[in-house]
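Service request form, structural biology core

Requester: graduate student, group of Dr. S.
Request type: structure prediction, single chain
Budget code: on file
Notes: please return the result as structure tokens.

Sequence provided:
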Amino acid sequence: MSLQLIGNQWKINREKCQAWTGSKPPCRAACPADLDVSRYVNLIAEGKFREALGVIMERMPFPAICGRICHHPCETDCTRSDIEQSIAVRDLKRFAADLYRDEVLLEKIEPKREERVAVVGAGPAGLTAAYDLLKRGYRVTVFEASEQPGGMITSHLPDYRIPREVASKEIGQVLNRGIELKTSTLISDIDKLRDEGFRAVLVAIGAQKSRKINLEGIEAKGVLYGLPFLREVKSGKSVELGDRVVVIGGGNVAVDCAQSAVRLGAREVYMVCLESRDEMPAHEWQLEEAVQEGVKLYPSLGPKRIIVKKGKVAGLETIVCSCVFDSEGKFCPQFAEGMESTMEADTIIIAIGQETDFKGFENMEKTPFKTFKVNQETLETSIPGVFAAGDCVNGPANFVEAVQTGHMAAESIDRYLRGEDLIQGRREVRNQPLAVRPVPRGIIRKSRQPMLVLKPEERKKSFDEILLGYSEELAVEEAKRCLNCTLCGYCIENFGCIALIWIDNAVLPDRSPEIDLALCVGCGVCSQICPHRAIEEVK
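Core staff response, request fulfilled:
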């Protein structure tokens, strides 16, 4: 049977059609570490919790940590976010990890290759790379300058965000698979590592050095820097702050300093930053938590001088910042003279950023942004056989992005030791959000399942976790909200044309749409609704 044509017929361009190319669903496309999000969420929906955790750990060796501190770009790009609220992807990851926290999930691996690899730095990037290389059969030694592995996760991040025991246990599981760890070992000579028999070196030393500021009164008693302050708090040391604390900075470290000051008993805590409220770089949910706890935000203010009395901090003079960036987006703050004001303070905490300490790595080429210069596809540095990953390459970034560079570095080191081309045919893991997110019609609205949270008045009294996790029942209900966007099919689901049919895809495990030309009347509506512009006229 064929129908009468009313226009030119149409066909699906299989090189553009998402269902034919196997393009990733929006959540996975947005995940820097390339987690198969929809797969593990749907396993949770089916009650297959252990299988879900297995899928997570294919790409994320630290699910309990990631489930607490990830900035979850997957949720920003979730199709549900265009309908009501995104799927609680991060919280579901935490649920699966916490459910099996007391079990030994990973078996020991015996390296099968003779080559030895040195990893300098036991943060998320270094440990991810070490784990990947161990699974590929290499003998890996991780050198850590501090007394414990984990980088800022175990040394700086407050317990209310990630409890030390949770992070340490998960990191220990990975190390116990067969990675040699040497703590309290400062590496300052890569050549010496080579002399000791290491065939390749990964430098993943993070960015744990506070950025300084030139400000009148900066040497006064009562002036602290953000990272050393958080380190002392995390270690349990007593820190005297007084009643009034001013935090200079608008990023996540500044927020953690402010929330920690509240928990240490400060009665008034202010955050002062150059950026406007909409420009503040801290995650919105962290800012909301801080405000709930009584922290007062003062955006669009710059520090002019620290007011000092008898050698001690007495206050901060500020000036209105009219613009932070120039027309090209470069940092170039402009101030409104004559718009000065002052605020009293007993302590001032400076948290305006962080950078890498390059001591011992002076012979490695750097960028103008004070990071190691690397090949962006391979992460190889200016020294052959030496690679770099994490914040010392990206600058201060997010946890999941550090994990991503760890995966990339391990792939490159494996290729280097095998004598293979470092670029040709490698799988890209630096995912990018999709330009278009098709939203099927007829979706039933379902509210996001709220997670139990400590009330502000309760959490101000201690460093207990703010978020309390999902129960099994809530986790299943939340996971069932997933639309399973793995396959597009937007044209079939939203048009209903009899000429649009599903056919087997010889390359992918799913079916893909096709147009039956015997039934196509040439109206062209399908081409207009396809979000990927993959439907073209038959020539």
